[in-house]
Structure formats: structure tokens, C-alpha cells
Amino acid sequence: MIIDYQIKYSKRKTLNISVERDRSIIVRAPDFLSAERIEAIVQSKKQWIKEKLNHAQKYPLESENKEFVSGETLMYLGRNYELMVVDEDIKGIQFNQKFIIGKNNQAKANKLFKEWYLAQALKKIEPLAIKYAKNLGVKYNAFKTSEMKYRWGSCTPANNIIFNWRIIKAPMYVLEYLVAHELVHLMEGNHTPRFWNILSIQVPNYERAKTWLKKNGQLLEVDF
Predict the structure, then answer these.
(1) Fewest CB within 10 angstroms: 7, 51, 56, 197, which?
(2) Cβ-based neighbours of 41, under 8 Å, separated by 6 or more
(3) What are the structural domain ranges in the chain?
(4) CA dist 183 → 133, 170, 176, 177, 193 (Å)
């Protein structure tokens, strides 16, 4: 098995291998590590990489694009809510146990919904980041929600935390898990027993959240 991977160097202290949701392999390595040493480590993880590449639940299913017509549903915080298209001139998206959009905005509904979800992600997720950073006694430099097609979140070498806006479609307990997960990485770079022990103290039901993501992760991959 030939392993094709991309190396991203930084000032981090340890090496991390991740198989992204588009099946690309990213190796995040310290600046001081030689290409030869990285290759040896990657080869030693060959079986693990193969298992990740063949993981059926890791990758998105084919899905139909929304037409943004009345009666369709869109997921938000773990539930599906009905969309209503109305004749009134409504600015942007309205939400009150139903999504409402004006017929005049139907043609640009994809753009408007993405803006709405991005804003909601920022509103719901940042307080969780503040909460868990305080609980863990860590500090991050910057927080943002962004377009991250194949990752749920990321903790950068500069201690910035970034989250995929699509996770706002998941239940709150899943958001809690994802946020705490990235912040624990400020204490423990890799998924060691210590990492999972710290996480389990912060989010005792994290296994439930992981199970939800395994079963429903493909629903988050598409925009809507």
C-alpha cells in the first residue's frame, strides 16, 4: 500500500496524522522533524491509516440539493424544522420553530441560509468555548466559525480554534463534545489516554456524542 500524504510543518512539538473526510492524509509535523523520520512514522501507522480510509461511516453519502420550497426541512441543533416560503417581503431568514423565507429571496436562499447558520454557529458555540476554556484553565487566541468542508473543528499551532459552521446542525451535547475536544488539545496534542481522561471529566457523555457523529456525520457534510 502506497501512502500519499501532505506534510504541514509548524512549531508544534508532536506529529499528528489525520485522514480527512475527503480521504486525503495530512501529517502535521514539527519543524525539526526530517522527511525520512516522518515517512518512517507514517509507514508504522499504515494499518491504522488503512482502517480509517475504509471506514464506511466516515464519508458522506450522496444527497440531493435543497430546492428551498415550502415543506422541505432543514436541520438545526439536532432537529428538522419545516421551511415555509411566503409571499411577504422578508429580509433574510426568520426562525420560530419553522424556517420562513420570502419568495423574493428564494433564488438566493442557499446564500442566505449559509449566512444565518454561520451567525448561529458563532452565537451558540463561542459561549461553549469560553466555558470550557475556563474549566480547563487554558487560553485560546482567536475563535471563529468557518467553511471547513472535511473537519468539524481545528486547534491551530497558534492556539486559534476554528469550527465548521455545519456542526450547528448537531444537538447541543454534540457541540459541547466538539468544543471541549478542541480545547483539550491545548493541553494534550494527541489522542492519548490522558487526552480522553481529561475530556471525559469535562464531557462525561462524550461517547454518546461520538456515536451520534458516526451515525449522522454525513448529514452535516452537505450545506443543507
Answers:
(1) 56
(2) 15, 17
(3) 5-58, 73-221
(4) 7, 19, 11, 10, 16
Q: What is the pLDDT confidence band of residue 58, given thresholds at 50, 70 and 90?
A: low
Question: For position 1, what pLDDT does the model report?
Answer: 66
The answer to whether the predicted template modeling score (pTM) of the entire model surpasses 0.90 is: no
Spatial distance between the Cα atoms of 14 and 197, rounded to a whole number of angstroms: 19
Render 17-83 in DSSP notation, one character per residue.
EEE-TTS-EEEEEETT--HHHHHHHHHHTHHHHHHHHT-GGGSPPP-PPP---TT-EEEETTEEEEE
Averaged confidence pLDDT in the chain: 88
Give the amino acid at 43: Q
Rounded mean pLDDT of 113-141? 93
- Helix or strand or coil: residue 168? helix
C-alpha cell at 85: 416560503
Tell the CATH topology of 73-221.
Zincin-like (3.30.2010)
Q: How many angstroms separate the CA atoms of 141 and 158, rounded? A: 7
Spatial separation of the C-alpha atoms in residues 68 and 88, rounded to whole Å: 16
1-53 residue pLDDT tens: 678 888 988 888 888 888 876 678 888 889 999 989 999 999 998 888 888 87
Torsion sign across C-alpha atoms 66, 69, 72, 73: positive
